[in-house]
TFIIS central domain-containing protein
Amino acid sequence: EEEDEEEEEEEEEEEEEEEEEEEEEEEEDEEEEEEEEEEEEEEEEEEEEEEQQQQQQQQQQQQQQEKNKNKNKNKNKNKNKKRKKKKKKKKKKKYDPHT
């Protein structure tokens, strides 16, 4: 009878220990999973940030190119105007003997 009781107690203790171990393992697993999720989130955020920066850079480049293009266009326009003016002046001079 006493042996039986002792054996039963031992079994219960073993079961409790096993349960505790299982719980600890579960907790560790959960913590690990949480850490992994956090890392993934951080990586995603970094990637998004990088992407945004790249887009911004691209946009700035495009704007700069557009600006330069317009600048050149205006420069050429003004050059042509000057040239035409000069030509006109020359022509006028040619046909106007008083000058």
